[in-house]
Amino acid sequence: MRPSLVIVGAGPRGTGLLERIAANAAELYGDQDLDIHLVDPYPPGAGRIWREAQSPLLWMNSQAQDVTMFTDATVDMAGPVLEGPTLHEWASLDGRTFADRPRQGAYMRWVYERAVAALPPGIQVHHHARRALRVGGPAEGRQQVWLEGRPRPLLADLVVLTLGHLDAEPDDEQRALSAHAREHGLVHLPPDFTADSDLSVLAPGEPVLVRGFGLAFVDLMVLLTEGRGGRHDGETYHPSGREPILYVGSRRGVPYHSKIGYDWEGERPPLPRFFGPAEVESLLARPGGFDFREDVWPLIEKELGFAHYHRLFSAHPERTRTAWSDFEEKYAADDAAGIRALVADAVPDPADRLDLTALDHPLEGVRYASPEDLQSGLRSYIEQDLSRRHDAAYSPDLAVFLGLLSVYGQLVRLGDIGSWWHGFFSYLASGPPGPRLRQMLALSRAGILRFVGAGMTVTAEHGVFRASGAGVPGATVEARALVEARLPHPTVARSRDPLLRELHADGAATTPEGLLAVDPADGRILDASGTPHPRRFALGPHTDARGSGAFTRPRTGGPAFRQNDATARAALDFLRALPRRAAA
């Protein structure tokens, strides 16, 4: 029997790992034989989330020029760089286009096929369109990967989990809401991938409470409006009459910030500056560990502020009162209080100052006299956001975006830092395309979309769901339908994936946030003592080495590329060293 590697999950992460195996095989594995088994019920390359069989009304959330599956010279990795086309180059699209997801799925299928074709002749790939149920076997011997509907397991010398986004069992609150819905004949849609939700249960003209104002909401909005025959014409929405009325709110009460609508010009901020490898090493070396808010956040705040003010002083010096060299010297030496005083003196317009706390709480303390005033107020907020994010006069915003990418590249080495940062990053850096927010405004003017505001609370009582927000004290909305517009939190304990639950029961360690603990060096799964499993690896959002998204912008260092390369090289080294008799 030939040596065998099983990769569970054939979406972008599994495909990226396969590309790195192909890139490193000549150096590390030579012409030896190997069977690679890809296990995923969805098509290899695209996987579940990016599969081609979904509505073309759903878009990528990045411009086509910012989506790549290929490494470049900015990636800090041991393996060779094998450059390839971005989505816009491959599909001959305008680089600023937000491609539909079926187009992205076709790109991913092509990337997968290219990776398979690049493997040496002795390495064969086999796709199993099934779910993996569990992994067994001793650490010192071959693993058994049991598949749904297959009487015998796949035998594997190594197993890599690249599972992507997973379904989850409901928490206590979601169970209570579902029970109330069953008892009173209501509709409750728990957190899910929107394209897989049964939206037919949401009746035309009926009010629907929607909790969550991020990207899952944008998908929901599109499928329940254009997806039901409505039509946008400039700033006007023409209803089909089949739309429900969406009442949306969240903790912040506003949608994620619009994608920035201009290109970078001029000098880039020299990043990292205050939060780089040396600072990460220092944090990791602390005997008692570190606290994110006390120890990490001040470094992030200083790093993002440096990116912001570097751009302001270099591109818009007329809006500052001092020379950059003087400002930079004092900025580097000051603590947070000193920096606030420095900025107040050197940057006269508050609109040019970076206030991350205010950005995270945009409606803090804002009150409206009536629900209609709230609608008007939030439309004005969205209009102002669109204007700013498409005006190069505010290019420090783009510098902060670059700072966020730099920070994320460092944070992946720190493991589980809690969920707040990931939400904050997405809110600032991974919001919807500008056209989606313009559609949101049109739907609001048409009365199809109603804002509940910040601090949205939902209760289940008296046979209905009720929602209220902090913006209009005392105002409530009643509905017989509630949608949780967000993906399930990727905890191992509540995952519906039986393989992950079995791994946890078998001794795999999890973090306080419920993520699978892995060795940051190569992705090997850790046990409770911190010992890496020699034959089991994991990559992706269910691990504490999760990255910022499925895809990487070209020439940004790509932490996911670095992780994929390290895991591929570790796997090939292990497989090459196997005695041939042990693989028989």
Describe it.
There is one protein chain. With 584 residues, this protein is α/β, with parallel strands linked by helices. The protein is built from 16 helices and 19 strands. It has three domains: 4-168 and 490-577, FAD/NAD(P)-binding domain; 184-255 and 433-484, FAD/NAD(P)-binding domain; 277-359 and 392-429, no CATH class. The protein has helices at 12-28, 87-91, 101-118, 172-184, 215-224, 277-284, 292-315, 324-333, 336-346, 356-360, 371-389, 396-411, 420-429, 434-445, 498-505, 559-577; strands spanning 4-8, 34-39, 123-128, 132-136, 143-147, 154-156, 158-161, 187-189, 207-211, 231-233, 236-238, 245-249, 449-453, 457-461, 464-468, 477-479, 481-484, 524-526, 532-538. α1 (12-28) runs parallel beside α3 (101-118) and α7 runs antiparallel to α12 (396-411). The chain is globular, with a radius of gyration of 25 Å. Residues 531-559 are annotated as: Disordered. It comes from Streptomyces siamensis.
CATH level-two architecture of the largest domain: 3-Layer(bba) Sandwich
- Number of domain modules: 3
N-to-C terminal Cα separation, in Å?
A: 5 Å
Tally of extended strands? 19
The percent range for strand residues is 5-15%
* Low-confidence residue ranges: none
Q: Which value, in Å, is the CA radius of gyration?
A: 25 Å
Q: What is the structural class?
A: alpha/beta
Helicity range: 25-40%
Mean pLDDT equals 95
What name does the CATH topology of the largest domain carry? FAD/NAD(P)-binding domain
